[in-house]
Amino acid sequence: MAYLLSESGFSVEVYELLPKFSVKPCGMGVPIQIESFFRLPESFILSKIKGYRAYLDGEMLVEGGGNIWGYTIDKEGLISYLLEKVKVVRKRVDDSYPMGLAKEFQGKKVIISTGFYSKLADRERINAVEVTIEKNKADFEEDIIEIRFDTGLMGYFWIFPWGDKGINVGVGGLESFDVLKKMLVNFLHDDPRFKRSVDVEVVQRIKGAQIVSSGINLRKLVLGENIYAVGELVGSVFPLTGEGIRPSMLTSKILFDSMQANKNYVVSVESSDLYYAIALQSKVYRLMKGVPKTVRKMIMKSIPKNWLIKFGLGEFTKEEIKQLKGFKGLFFELLNYSGL
Question: What is the pTM of this model?
Answer without folding.
Answer: 0.93
